[in-house]
Design goal:
The chain has 154 residues and is α+β, with helices and mostly antiparallel strands. Helix content is 41%, strand content 19%. A 3-stranded antiparallel beta sheet has the order 4-3-5. A hairpin with a 2-residue loop joins strand 1 and strand 2. Helix 3 runs antiparallel to helix 5. The N and C termini lie far apart (61 Å).
Length: 154
């Protein structure tokens, strides 16, 4: 084991692989060699570098392999047009699912089929169906400039 006790603090030895953009503890080197292998480009890093780059990244940044073979922070690129449209599609489906869950939790479809909806519930049911129609009419290809409809009673 390659852990040292220095002034009452455990100091581990870590290596960084730019190819894998990952850290590897020296104490597990034999396990790596016997398993997936020890990275050929592994370079020893300080405990400080290890701690910095395995913690929470700075806002808007991600860890990448630097040109010098060590980790560094890089700005996260803005989402692509396709990613923005895809996220809008996820949002549309989420809103549709939530509306359907609300409608079904009130048992309005079953009550309507049986003729058991009172006038108040019928008005609410119709408002939620209109809301579902409004969600369905949202063209996600126009993202991010979308105007989402507001749920009834909100």
């Amino acid at each position: 084991m390659h852990t040292f006790l220095l002034l009452g603090v455990n100091v581990n030895t870590y290596f960084y692989s730019a190819k894998h953009n990952s850290f590897f503890p020296l104490e597990l080197k034999d396990d790596y060699i016997n398993g997936i292998g020890w990275p050929e480009d592994a370079v020893e890093v300080t405990e400080q570098v290890y701690s910095e780059f395995t913690g929470e990244p700075p806002q808007g940044q991600k860890r990448v392999a630097g040109k010098n073979g060590f980790p560094e922070w890089e700005d996260i690129p803005p989402p692509t047009r396709e990613e923005i449209v895809a996220q809008a599609g996820v949002e549309k489906q989420s809103r549709t699912d939530a509306a359907n869950d609300f409608i079904n939790s009130n048992q309005w479809p079953g009550k309507a089929a049986m003729g058991r909806l009172n006038d108040t519930d019928k008005a609410k049911y119709n408002a939620w169906l209109d809301y579902l129609d409004s969600i369905g009419a949202v063209d996600v290809s126009a993202a991010p400039d979308l105007n989402w409809p507001i749920p009834p009673g909100m």
